[in-house]
UniProtKB/TrEMBL annotation:
Organism field: Scophthalmus maximus (Turbot)
EC number(s) on file: 3.6.4.13
Record's catalysed reaction(s): ATP + H2O = ADP + phosphate + H(+)
Cited InterPro entries: DEXQc_SUV3 (IPR055206), Helicase_C-like (IPR001650), P-loop_NTPase (IPR027417), RNA-DNA_Helicase (IPR050699), SUV3_C (IPR022192), Suv3_C_1 (IPR041082), Suv3_DEXQc (IPR044774), Suv3_N (IPR041453)
Main localization of the protein described in the UniProt heading: mitochondrion
Keyword field: ATP-binding, Helicase, Hydrolase, Mitochondrion, Mitochondrion nucleoid, Nucleotide-binding, Transit peptide
Protein name listed in UniProt: ATP-dependent RNA helicase SUPV3L1, mitochondrial
Lineage start: Eukaryota, Metazoa, Chordata, Craniata, Vertebrata
């Protein structure tokens, strides 16, 4: 190498190593904007957030270091040619001295390196400097100068920070990341489809269950030249779809898994179930779900992003003040129409206590599928027929069971259901009977715990009794156990907690911008960092993302582009169902190979055709297969070329729905078959055990109720009667084993005594 080239290179390097005070540069990047044109609603939203709190510090535990290659050096051996060789033992002492200097730790903290990141960065930097075959020329020279006494230990700092920013790239762009994750003005990114000249008219239809609030909103929807209805359930969308077409107004159906176009030539109708296109009237049902920890973001996005001249929102009166405040930030006024319940319901003073007291029109509400099975079996053993409805049943099966219960000519007059009846089904119920007042809930942090149902939940369920237009003009509400009656009265007497916040969720575009700055981060890590840096004002919260992260981690090893990976992770699946999760993984793997998921492939995967269920386990598997077909249909409307056989899959899903309906109709036989398997008690012994158990509804209870631990656990939903029986059998077996051990020990001691 020529001397001139060496001197030229040295002159370029030297200015960077002479300064002992590092120069702090701001993280670059373009300024983010919410789009061209600032409407009146965006101006109001901007002023509303001006008093927000300062940016919070990031959760550095989410920062995953990126590996740095040690086998490349653009300068070759220039550093070794210009300076003396470096001895590793001296370098090690040098680095350890640098690590202990408080001044360096403070400077690093100003650059975003807290104690945890500083330690990780130092370990990586030391390893890099000691193990790399050829150091960069500038670093080699400065280390040589320090070893020779011509430099100061602090001169290492700029090179240490350079390495830290390589392994933690988010340090370079923290300002940009904070701007991207700033959720304080959601109207700015929810209104991206709205023209500036649109002046919204927001009408809030407030009232309890069975007050006609949704009816009045739908009447305006039917009269409009175009409209969109947004509801929380497929059943509600189907109901509005059918009612709209029956009224002579062409309407299309759009749900996550289904598209129904009424026009034979494929032209879009003027009324649909969900769209972002401009329309005259939009109806958003069950607006109180805007505070739901998992799904609230969908209501927020609909309310702030729907393009309509009129938006009719329907929900509880507890949401009135919040919706007013929320729309104030966008510059819109809210007109409120209040409604009273059309038919009254009363809370009875007496609990049911025994299934012998059931009457036609009764509905027992449980919060556990096992309780559904147990109670429905006991009812049918007593000679009565019952319908069964719970959340994981297909929509067609739910409608079939509801029709069976509502049919005056059908002998089925009793309904056993979960809180799935709270919305989406019109049922002719006279009396609601709460089997329990506790249910599993998931809070904003994703923590699951057993909690007493809220006033809002209790009113939603109790309001199904005595529904308007049914044969029962008045409704009644009670509990299964006498101890729960005063608790239920207390719950229903309390005012509904006012809604104070609305849910938000990062969009695909925001995550893509994050990925631009952090290309090596996983999707799960990107979302974690986004939530950690996100800023929200007092009106909003970031929804729980545990399910999203669960799916992201599951398919992280599968090569997918970021947008496809994001879409897959927003799929509505139940992560508790093993078969559904396995299918999700196989779908993603097949998709990544660019191999279409054909009808034949799906049939092989689910082992179609499927037989009638022989026991409860088979029935649960069929429900999981139905969810897998739902997942296929959901993905088919997002990746049409890779999931091409939508029509064929929908046909076998309908056949499967019929099979499940047959299984639910014979659910008592399935339970009896399950219980009569080897290792389980017979039907008669179960019946006796159930009736003798203190947790059985027909068991005699004292004036103050049974206060045993087992009874309390069952009442609180933490233990089912079936599990209690199994524990009793296991304890009995263990007692026999213990008794055998004592007898053996006693026998051995006697033998020893005889020998003596």
């Amino acid at each position: 190498m020529s001397v001139n080239r060496c001197m030229s290179l040295f002159s370029r390097l030297r200015p960077h190593v002479n300064s002992r005070t590092p120069r702090v540069t701001a993280g670059g990047g373009g300024r983010l904007s919410a789009g061209s044109g600032s409407s009146h609603r965006q101006q109001r939203a901007g002023s509303a957030s001006s008093s927000s709190s300062p940016p919070k510090g990031p959760d550095t535990s989410l920062f995953v270091p990126v590996s740095v290659r040690t086998d490349l050096s653009a300068d070759g051996s220039v550093g070794a040619e210009l300076a003396q060789p470096l001895q590793k033992d001296k370098l090690l002492k040098l680095f350890n001295r640098f690590y202990t200097r408080k001044e360096m730790q403070k400077l690093a903290a100003d650059q975003g390196l807290d104690a945890r990141l500083f330690h990780q960065a130092f370990v990586s930097f030391r390893k890099f400097a000691l193990e790399v075959s050829t150091l960069p020329a500038d670093l080699h020279i400065i280390l040589s100068d320090i070893c020779c006494g011509a430099g100061h230990i602090d001169d290492i700092y700029p090179y240490f920070m350079r390495h830290a920013k390589q392994i933690f790239p988010m340090l370079e762009c923290m300002d940009d990341l904070r701007k991207i994750s700033d959720l304080r003005v959601p109207a700015n990114w929810c209104y991206q489809y709205t023209s500036n000249w649109i002046k919204l008219s927001v009408i809030f239809h407030a009232g309890p269950t069975n007050s006609g609030k949704t009816y009045h909103a739908i009447q305006r929807y039917l009269a409009a030249k175009s409209g969109v209805y947004c509801g929380p359930l497929k059943l509600l969308a189907h109901e509005i779809f059918e009612k709209t077409n029956d009224a002579g107004v062409p309407c299309d159906l759009v749900t996550g898994e289904e598209r129904a176009i009424m026009d034979t030539e494929g032209r879009a109708a003027s009324h649909v179930a969900c769209t972002i296109e401009m329309c005259s009237v939009a109806v958003i049902d069950e607006i109180q779900m805007i505070r739901d920890p998992a799904r609230g973001w969908a209501w927020t996005r609909a309310l702030l992003g729907l393009c309509a001249e009129e938006i009719h929102v329907c929900g509880e009166p507890a949401a009135i003040d919040f919706i007013r405040e929320l729309m104030y930030t966008t510059g819109e006024e809210v007109e409120v129409n209040t409604y009273q319940r059309l038919t009254p319901f009363s809370v009875l003073d007496q609990a049911l206590e025994s299934l012998d007291k059931l009457r036609p029109g009764d509905c027992i509400v449980c919060f556990s599928k096992n309780d559904i099975y147990s109670i429905s079996r006991q009812i049918e053993i007593s000679g009565q027929e019952c319908a069964v409805i719970y959340g994981s049943l297909p929509p067609g099966t739910k409608l079939s069971q509801a029709k069976k219960f509502n049919d005056p000519d059908d002998p089925c007059k009793i309904l056993v259901a979960t809180d799935a009846i709270g919305m989406g089904l019109n049922l002719s119920i006279k009396r609601i009977i709460f089997n329990s007042l506790v249910k599993p809930n998931v809070n904003e942090k994703g923590e699951k715990r057993m909690e007493t149902i809220s006033t809002s939940q209790a009113l939603q369920i109790a309001g199904r009794a005595g529904r308007f237009s049914s044969k029962f003009s008045e409704g009644e509400v009670t509990t299964m156990y006498r101890d729960d009656v005063p608790i239920l009265k207390e719950i229903l007497s309390q005012p509904v907690d006012p809604i104070e916040t609305a849910g938000l969720h990062p969009t695909a575009e925001q995550i893509e911008m994050f990925a631009y700055h952090l290309p090596d981060a996983t999707l799960s890590n990107l979302v974690d960092i986004f939530v950690s840096l996100s800023q929200v004002d007092g009106l909003y919260f970031v929804c729980n993302i545990d399910d999203f992260k669960f799916l992201a981690d599951m398919i992280q090893h599968i090569p997918l582009n970021l947008r496809s990976r994001y879409v897959f992770c927003t799929a509505p699946i139940n992560k508790k169902q093993t078969f559904v999760c396995t299918s999700f993984l196989k779908f993603a793997r097949q998709f990544s190979r660019d191999e279409p998921l054909t009808f034949d492939w799906v049939c092989r995967h689910v082992s179609w055709p499927l037989a009638q269920p022989k026991d409860i386990k088979n029935l649960i598997h069929l429900e999981a297969v139905h969810d897998v077909l739902d997942l296929y249909l959901w993905l088919s409307y997002r990746f049409m070329d890779m999931f091409p056989d939508t029509k064929l899959v929908r046909e076998i899903q309908q056949e499967l729905d019929d099979i499940i309906q047959q299984g639910v109709r014979s659910i008592t036989r399935l339970i009896r078959t399950q219980n009569s398997k080897p290792g389980q008690t017979s039907d008669n012994s179960n019946k006796t055990a159930d009736r003798n158990s203190p947790t059985h509804p027909r068991a005699k209870r004292g004036p103050s109720g049974d206060n045993t631990l087992a009874s309390r656990l069952v009442r609180e939903g933490l233990l089912t009667p079936g599990l209690l029986q199994q524990l009793q059998r296991e304890w009995s077996k263990q007692e026999l084993i213990n008794q055998y051990a004592l007898d053996t020990e006693h026998h051995d001691s006697n033998n020893k005594g005889k020998k003596k």
